[in-house]
Amino acid sequence: MTRLPEIATIIAIGIGATVLMDVWLTFLKRMGVPTLNFAYIGRWVGHLFHGTFAHASIGQASPIPGERALGWLTHYATGIAFAGLLIAIHGMEWAQSPTVLPAVLVGMATVAAPLFVMQPAMGSGFAASRTPTPLRNCMRSFANHTVFGFGLYLSALVIACLAQ
């Protein structure tokens, strides 16, 4: 049975890592690099509740009330879930004395979610195959999730330092 402090640690690591990823995405956006509109994630999730998983184009799907907030909530909930995956694989001992490699590897592995689930379901095809620049989009997703992995490590490191 997981204790409340362990759950709080996982939540804090997930939120911290997702914040770092968002800082990275904001930097990219300011540099003119296209980034994901989180309203589209909310729209996709909203349509899941109505029984629709895949769309020809999520941008052309009917808007969902509150889709932007739902998208951001989903984004952070997913970050927390991925932090939970890291702890499930490496244990709470890792969170108490974090090392960079496990976090970055888990972060890199999480790119499977957008490439093989979300992009196809939102109309972009497997690994962005229906976009004008699939390889560039895949590399950008990989870089974003690698940043998320570093965020897992840095968040765990800060929490471990604060706990001492």
UniProtKB/TrEMBL annotation:
Protein name: DUF2938 domain-containing protein
Pfam family, one: DUF2938
Ranges that cross the membrane: 7-27, 69-88, 100-122, 142-163
Keywords of this entry: Membrane, Transmembrane, Transmembrane helix
Taxon lineage: Bacteria, Pseudomonadati, Pseudomonadota, Betaproteobacteria, Burkholderiales
